[in-house]
Amino acid sequence: MKKILFIIFISGYAISQPAFQGLNAWTQSSTIGLAGGGYLLWGQNDFRNAGMLYNSKRKMKFTIVKYPAGINGQSIVGNGTINSHNLGFKINRINYGIFDGRDIENQKTDNYSASDLHLQMGYAKASNSGRVIIGINGGILLSKLEKSNASAITLSPAIIYNSGRTDFGFSLQNYGKVINNYGESKESMPVMLVTSISRQITPLPLI
Questions:
Q1: Contacts of 201 (CB under 8 A, 6+ apart)
Q2: How confident is the model at residue 204 (pLDDT cuts 50, 70, 90)?
Q3: Mean pLDDT score of the chain, rounded to an integer?
Q4: Which residue in 145, 98, 97, 138 sits closest to 118, CA to CA?
Q5: How confident is the model at residue 205 (pLDDT cuts 50, 70, 90)?
Q6: Distance CA 134, CA 163 (A)
Q7: Which pLDDT does position 14 carry in this prediction?
Q8: CA 103, 108, 114: angle at the middle one, nearest 5?
């Protein structure tokens, strides 16, 4: 009985795997250097936790990342402050390369490609004490697979709490709604909850 339940569980998990995994792709050099971490590192962040927009210096950054197998990603990140409002934008694009086309009889057809384009705007605001920062990233995903297109609206709310020397961050990534599916199948969003902790190191005296 346990074996049957285990098989059912694994099958259900495999079937329910969400689409649009390009939303979690690393297209920033700083993110790759930190192995996907760095959600609460000021100055080395692409605002995946939108609260990091608060108090960040104005900047514009463009990155090109090349992976094996012809996969490459590009991103543009910019942020600034307008009338005490902390705003930012991100444009992430990942190209999965060129694939050999084959029909149902394994005969060669035209080659095809696949890509994801994610456009986002971000906003952050701190409480009067500055200990609590709330933020949100909102955007639209445009995905292409051969001749099929899909799109989705994304929302990623976040909060940061500062207890002094330690920051605690919580963000709900890639929550949203699918607008258009690739075909008759119903894709789902790769939603995930990310928790982060960052603590300042106690300064050591120079010897």
A1: none
A2: low
A3: 81
A4: 138
A5: low
A6: 15
A7: 40
A8: 75
| CB 26, CB 72: distance < 8 Å | no
- Residues 6 or more apart from 123 whose CB is under 8 A from it? 50, 53, 85, 86, 87, 88, 135, 136
- Domain residue limits, the chain: 20-199
Q: Which residues pair with 94 in a beta bridge?
A: 73, 116
Two tokens, residue 38: 């760095």
**CA–CA gap between residue 115 and residue 144 (Å, rounded):** 5
Instruction: For the chain, give the longest Cα–Cα distance.
Output: 73
User: Quick one: tokens of 36?
Assistant: 């996907």
Contact between residue 169 and residue 202 where contact means Cβ atoms under 8 Å apart: no
- The residue whose two tokens read 């799109």 is 151
Residue whose pair of structure tokens reads 């950054």 in the numeric block: 61
Q: How far is residue 135's CA from residue 129's CA, in Å, rounded to a whole number?
A: 16
pLDDT at 158: 95
What pairing do the DSSP bridges indicate for beta strands 166-173 and 148-162?
A: antiparallel
> Could you tell me the two tokens for 158?
């976040």
pLDDT score for 13: 40
- The per-residue pLDDT for range 78-118, each reduced to its tens digit, is 998 888 889 999 999 999 888 777 777 777 777 878 889 99
What the block records as the tokens of 88 is 């930012």
Written as six digits, the tokens of 112 are 């095809």
Structure tokens at 138: 């909102």
